[in-house]
Write a sequence for this structure.
């Protein structure tokens, strides 16, 4: 449904005719959500490409005046980027794509929403700086990833989740007012997210972000770490068979397999306590097979060989990134000591070679989208964090609810396709279970709902904190009371500030 | 030619991941030059991208989207450079460019396409066998008397419309190089028609087929087993389009591959030195889109299984090394690479019928490419496609930044002394 | 003061809630709650209540809501410095000294679950027994509440363990001003704290809101926290303290930044000779001047450590980085304290646990003090130190021997800058001059970009005067969590 002419004219006045459209063929590019969703999203009423925060403010005010809903997006990879109500306009923030500042001394970068991981991460390398890139592909928006969505990443053992790195925030509220958070509030620069007083940063993002459902973040600063690699990625080869090796003196990858999850867990905890390693994770095995192959057929050939089930059902990936060969040797010695104590063994060298030859797995994760390659569908059933110990308890309980789906051949038989990533030297960890189902099955759209429901039942039965946040409003209504009535508080806040969508 | 309905798997598989718009991560070198899709970079809306065109194609296929002139403009603003396709295929089993080409064919079949300029080109090809509407008898005006042709030779140099009419120097240099290397060849003379590539890529399949079938028949009749081109567009058409029409009984080589071979065999020596720093622009149809078409008629089963297995063309086997090795063999030439090179090369703006239908946007794209070339510090941009030359030369001329465009055959010819 | 009838009703209800023996209306005790070492003017509360558990806290909040009586949560023992615990309009001081249980020490998941009355004096040795330690502030007083310190985002000594300004706080259980109970992060659920198996170490959420941040630096004005889980660290088995003498404060940024980029050091801070001498003098009245004179103008203290595995090797590698970095900068890292050799062990003790002597170190040189502290990028710390020197020089007390302390935070991306202004109450004019300096310097520093992220007392005006949109948002939140405004009214922008 198109916008009334007068409203369109008001919006056009703000962004210019070139950057607004309600033509059906333009909107067609914004109403085909994930193949994993059985529901085709509603069409937006219009799409706008604002160029500045001031334009965003004006648009939001027009929306408020006329009762329009708005969804800010950049790459629109996730389902939350799509309208669920009529009279919704999409603000694609791609034109707001400036790296406003890279501050080498104070180690932060100020960015607008349109800056992508591929751009910022590689630009920062030139300055010897880095940040943990969440596994969303190089075209993912850095700002969205940090401030609006999730933010787990392979390197969060030596670094952390992206939410930790948010500094100053510039935010257009659902009312259209602009508020600046942290040190920015008092014109003290971008370096701090919290304050003055109670930290309004808490409204920007919790475990996950609001996914564009709470005003529009127009600029953030993110904290930066030192980059321990070269100024430019030493990529060799051509698509899709890139090689990316970093100096073995300072960058080393190990993959060990363990007889039990408990042993693997103990190794992860000990590595954390020793404060070694940049990335430490139990990675998905089916996903690993997808990333290691170039086509669905290649995947099936590999998967049916059983190699990845045999070698990677309980793997521990460790990536060491240090400042010197001596430090690498030290970390390797400690690592091997721990692995020996906990009963780990090296996996097939061919598997380790995959990661040695392409360390992008620990940099930009440029191959991530291969997980989508089966052309079927996928979803995460678990998505939460707590201690390493607790995450493994959750992992151990996965077969309780997943096996029935595999037995009925509703999903790919991959009960070990979950990851547990150590965070902040093992102070906590994140879990994610990916299950893959097939869109050619009858009633395929119900499969993810059933898996998630059974997953929740298992968590409630065991007292496992395995799915935060509940991922939809109906679920939130049902499960919120079990989560400290968080749905009531979030609703109160939404009511008080509005949401925009 | 795959009809649109056979590409539904691709349309339904798109997750909006954005890889069709961005250089793949490990190949990215910084903030600038990270975008890969000209229409997306220029117009911004998602509809202007590989992903958007898949979405549009699906809605047209399902009868959910009505034609209007803006939609047709959008579809024809794509340069069909295939950057989306190769980047997508780096991570997915999808046929993005096939879908875009099938969409264009569908638009033509539905009576909404192509653009008037493309119809004009098709009319010119029908009347004069070349896209410019020039007299067919002038097609071999470039052929100087000193060029040595070999009768009954099984190697043919296919000059193509552009070199024949617009850039005869390329054809002359190519002939000179072949003669210098002692490689026997012939030309098709009056039997050389447009390769059909520009018609195919604008959805005019019947018209394209007609000239292609003519060329195929001539090549067959003359017993040609090797075709040499100096034009990436022709090269791409022979590699990708002709096999769709039936068995192709000849090899296609680009002049740079021939020179590479001649140098390796020490049949050609490039000795004249001229110091210059150049950057090489990979034409899409010589690079990422030049892998031979391999027909696949199978079934896509659950979880993406292709039965029988499909041989994917992911762009890795394009002609990337030959032009670089040849340039390196020229004394005094230093190559500085652009960020977006090889399979990630950024479009020149000259392909897909865009230069004819949307010259302003074509030049916008060419300027973006020239901006990148300028950032390397090179004095010249070298390539080997007359369509690229047309777009890039115009942009460089307008920019007046001092950078020159050179076809690679000119450098080789000069280096022969 | 409450009206007599309200006072009486409240007293009765409080007695029922916590037991008569656990409330006080003793005038002297009430009086002691009305002042501290800050410039804030307080009022006398009507009661002090000493709850023992969450149920009692909830009942106190109910009573306060019913009678519209202010509640002022107090967790630490005196001396207090910020005015945050001074009632602005009487009411009930909720004293948590009876909620002093360490509920859990977990060496595997490296955390401690504590009630608000648990002090550094309680927790640090308890952790040590379990092979753990806490990233704590510099020499906190032994009776300081750990929970409050964390909740108030106090600066801590080990920047590498700080990923953002909220560390080391993880999750909390809170009774909001509305009387409703809530748990943050992975403490939220599913189910009750008893059935939940999570270790409650994920601070974020639940959902899209970081509720714990909304409680931070709130001076108890949003909710009353009844327990918290805080992050702990492995206790080093080998530690080596290095001293980097500096001639001027502008030199401090480079070594600190280089060390923290590489995450070489554990404890890491810079003190001027006034503060260091204050901390180290055996008897300040006797030793301070000489010690100060002997110390370099500034000293960076940097501790390298090894943990449970190959500690000596780790220390050797870190030492090499440390010495290389200093050498490259033309500085010298040494294991003896320049100018005061022999006190190294004492310095190590200072950065390892609470201050156990009397008086508290900030009061060693005078019976009162004012402290100006704020956040800045580490690169600007030197600038602010210089600016403060100029401000003091231009003030009515130009000879004031104030101490300066720079604490790098959040892996070196920020710094806590502190200026300790001694103030002898025996001289009213001096006290007035120092007080004036405190106020005017705060303003001047803020104007130049000092970020008063924890705006106690008069700093609230600095923070919110030109931040009306943020203040409006905070008021909206306050309305949600504490609709009757009973929690510590008059603080911040409330």
């Amino acid at each position: 449904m198109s916008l009334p002419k007068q409203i369109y004219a008001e919006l056009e006045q703000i962004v210019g005719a070139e950057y607004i459209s309600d033509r059906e063929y333009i909107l067609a590019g914004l109403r085909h959500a994930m193949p994993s969703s059985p529901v085709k999203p509603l069409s937006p009423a219009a799409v706008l490409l604002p160029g500045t925060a001031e334009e965003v403010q004006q648009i939001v005010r027009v929306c408020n005046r006329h009762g329009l809903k708005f969804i800010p997006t950049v790459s629109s990879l996730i389902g939350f980027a799509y309208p669920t109500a009529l009279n919704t306009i999409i603000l694609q923030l791609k034109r707001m794509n400036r790296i406003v500042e890279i501050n080498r001394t104070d180690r932060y970068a100020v960015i607008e929403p349109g800056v992508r991981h591929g751009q910022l991460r590689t630009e920062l390398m030139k300055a010897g700086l880095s940040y943990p890139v969440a596994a969303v592909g190089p075209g993912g928006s850095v700002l969205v990833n940090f401030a609006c969505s999730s933010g787990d990443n392979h390197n969060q053992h030596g670094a952390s989740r992206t939410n930790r790195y948010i500094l100053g925030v510039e935010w257009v509220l659902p009312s259209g007012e602009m508020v600046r958070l942290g040190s920015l509030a008092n014109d003290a620069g971008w370096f701090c997210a919290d304050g003055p007083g109670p930290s309004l940063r808490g409204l920007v993002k919790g475990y996950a972000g609001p996914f564009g459902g709470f005003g529009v973040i127009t600029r953030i600063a993110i904290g930066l770490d030192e980059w321990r690699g070269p100024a430019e990625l030493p990529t060799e080869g051509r698509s899709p068979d890139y090689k990316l090796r970093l100096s073995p003196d300072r960058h080393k990858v190990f993959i060990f397999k363990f007889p039990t999850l408990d042993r693997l867990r103990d190794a992860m905890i000990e590595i954390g306590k020793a404060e070694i390693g940049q990335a430490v994770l139990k990675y998905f095995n089916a996903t690993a097979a997808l990333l290691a192959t170039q086509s669905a057929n290649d995947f099936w050939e590999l998967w049916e060989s059983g190699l990845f089930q045999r070698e990677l059902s309980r793997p521990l990936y460790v990536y060491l990134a240090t400042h010197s060969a001596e430090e690498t040797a030290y970390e390797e010695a400690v690592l091997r000591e721990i692995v020996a104590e906990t009963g780990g063994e090296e996996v097939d060298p061919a598997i380790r070679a995959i990661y040695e030859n392409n360390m992008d797995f620990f940099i930009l994760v440029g191959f991530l989208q291969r997980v989508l390659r089966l052309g079927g569908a996928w979803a995460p059933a678990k998505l939460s964090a707590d201690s390493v110990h607790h995450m493994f308890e959750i992992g151990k309980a996965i077969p309780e609810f997943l096996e029935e789906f595999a037995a009925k051949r509703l999903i790919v038989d991959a009960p070990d396709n979950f990851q547990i990533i150590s965070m902040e030297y093992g102070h906590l960890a994140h879990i994610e279970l990916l299950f893959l189902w097939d869109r050619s099955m009858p009633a395929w759209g119900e499969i993810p709902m059933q898996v998630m429901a059974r997953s929740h039942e298992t968590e409630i039965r065991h007292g496992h904190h395995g799915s935060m946040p509940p991922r939809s409003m109906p679920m939130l209504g049902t499960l919120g009371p079990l989560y400290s009535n968080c749905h009531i508080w979030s609703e109160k806040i939404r009511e008080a500030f509005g949401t925009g969508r | 030619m795959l009809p649109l309905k056979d590409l539904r798997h691709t349309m339904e598989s798109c997750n909006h991941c954005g890889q069709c718009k961005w250089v793949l991560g490990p190949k990215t070198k910084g903030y600038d030059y990270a975008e890969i899709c000209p229409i997306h970079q220029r117009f911004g809306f998602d509809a202007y991208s590989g992903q958007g065109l898949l979405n549009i194609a699906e809605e047209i296929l399902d009868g959910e989207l009505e034609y209007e002139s803006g939609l047709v403009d959008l579809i024809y603003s794509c340069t069909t450079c295939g950057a989306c396709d190769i980047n997508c295929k780096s991570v997915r089993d999808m046929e993005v460019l096939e879908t875009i080409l099938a969409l264009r064919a569908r638009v033509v079949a539905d009576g909404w396409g192509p653009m008037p300029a493309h119809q004009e080109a098709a009319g010119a090809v029908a009347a004069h066998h070349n896209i410019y509407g020039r007299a067919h008898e002038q097609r071999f005006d470039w052929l100087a008397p000193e060029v040595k042709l070999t009768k009954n030779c099984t190697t043919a140099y296919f000059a193509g419309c552009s070199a024949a009419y617009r850039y005869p120097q390329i054809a002359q240099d190519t002939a000179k190089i072949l003669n210098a290397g002692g490689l026997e060849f012939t030309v098709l003379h009056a039997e050389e028609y447009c390769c059909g590539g520009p018609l195919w890529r604008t959805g005019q399949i019947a018209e394209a087929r007609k000239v292609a079938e003519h060329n195929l028949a001539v090549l067959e009749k003359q017993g040609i087993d090797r075709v040499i081109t100096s034009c990436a567009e022709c090269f791409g058409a022979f590699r990708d389009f002709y096999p769709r029409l039936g068995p192709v009984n000849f090899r296609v080589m680009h002049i740079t591959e021939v020179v590479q071979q001649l140098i390796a065999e020490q049949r050609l020596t490039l000795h004249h030195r001229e110091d210059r720093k150049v950057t090489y622009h990979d034409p899409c149809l010589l690079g990422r889109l030049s892998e031979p078409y391999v027909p696949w008629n199978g079934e896509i089963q659950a979880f993406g299984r292709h039965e029988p297995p499909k041989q994917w063309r992911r762009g890795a086997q394009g002609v990337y090394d030959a032009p670089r090795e040849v340039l390196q063999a020229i004394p005094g030439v230093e190559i500085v690479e652009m960020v977006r090179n090889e399979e990630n090369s950024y479009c020149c703006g000259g392909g897909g019928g865009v230069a004819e239908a949307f010259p302003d946007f074509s030049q916008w794209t060419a300027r973006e490419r020239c901006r990148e070339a300028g950032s390397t510090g090179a004095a010249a941009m070298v390539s080997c496609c007359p369509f690229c030359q047309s777009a890039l030369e115009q942009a460089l001329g307008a920019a007046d930044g001092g950078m020159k465009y050179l076809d690679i055959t000119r450098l080789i010819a000069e280096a022969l002394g | 003061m409450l009206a007599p009838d309200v006072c009486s009703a409240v007293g009765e209800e409080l007695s029922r809630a916590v037991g008569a023996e656990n409330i006080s209306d003793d005038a002297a005790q009430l009086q002691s709650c009305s002042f501290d070492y800050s410039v804030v003017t307080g009022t006398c509360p009507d009661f002090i209540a000493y709850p023992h558990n969450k149920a009692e806290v909830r009942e106190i909040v109910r009573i306060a809501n019913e009678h519209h009586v202010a509640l002022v949560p107090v967790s630490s023992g005196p001396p207090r410095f910020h005015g945050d615990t001074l009632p602005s309009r009487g009411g009930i001081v909720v004293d948590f000294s009876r909620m002093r249980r360490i509920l859990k020490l977990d060496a595997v998941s490296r955390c401690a679950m504590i009630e608000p009355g648990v002090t550094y004096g309680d927790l640090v040795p308890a952790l040590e027994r379990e092979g753990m330690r806490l990233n704590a502030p510099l020499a906190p007083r032994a009776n300081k509440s750990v929970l409050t310190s964390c909740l108030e985002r106090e600066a801590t000594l080990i920047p590498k363990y700080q990923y953002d300004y909220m560390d080391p706080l993880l999750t909390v259980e809170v009774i909001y001003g509305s009387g409703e109970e809530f748990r943050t992060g992975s403490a939220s659920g599913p189910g009750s704290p008893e059935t939940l198996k999570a270790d409650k170490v994920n601070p974020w959420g639940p959902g899209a809101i970081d509720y714990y941040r909304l409680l931070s630096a709130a001076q108890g004005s949003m909710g009353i926290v009844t327990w918290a889980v805080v992050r702990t660290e492995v206790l080093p088995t080998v530690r080596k303290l290095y001293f980097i003498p500096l001639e001027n404060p502008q030199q401090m940024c480079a070594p600190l930044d280089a060390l923290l980029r590489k995450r070489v050091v554990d404890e890491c801070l810079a003190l001027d000779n006034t503060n260091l001498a204050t901390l180290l003098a055996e008897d300040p009245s006797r030793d301070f001047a000489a010690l100060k004179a002997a110390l370099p103008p500034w000293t960076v203290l940097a501790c390298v450590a090894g943990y449970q595995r190959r500690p000596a090797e780790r220390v050797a590698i870190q030492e090499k980085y440390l010495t290389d970095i200093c050498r490259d900068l033309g500085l010298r890292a040494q294991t003896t304290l320049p100018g005061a050799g022999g006190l190294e062990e004492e310095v190590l003790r200072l950065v390892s646990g609470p201050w156990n002597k009397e008086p508290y170190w900030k009061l060693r040189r005078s019976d009162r003090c004012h402290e100006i502290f704020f956040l800045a990028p580490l690169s600007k710390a030197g600038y602010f130190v210089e600016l403060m020197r100029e401000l003091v020089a231009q003030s009515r007390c130009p000879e004031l021997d104030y101490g300066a302390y720079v604490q790098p935070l959040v892996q070196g991306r920020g710094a806590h800058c502190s200026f300790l202004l001694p103030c002898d109450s025996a001289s009213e004019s001096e006290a007035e001059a120092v007080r004036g300096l405190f106020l005017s310097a705060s303003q001047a520093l803020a104007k130049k970009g000092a970020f008063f992220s924890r705006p106690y007392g008069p700093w609230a005006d600095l923070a919110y005067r030109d931040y009306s949109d943020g203040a409006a948002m905070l008021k909206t939140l306050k309305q949600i969590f504490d609709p009757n405004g009973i929690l510590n009214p008059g603080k911040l922008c409330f």
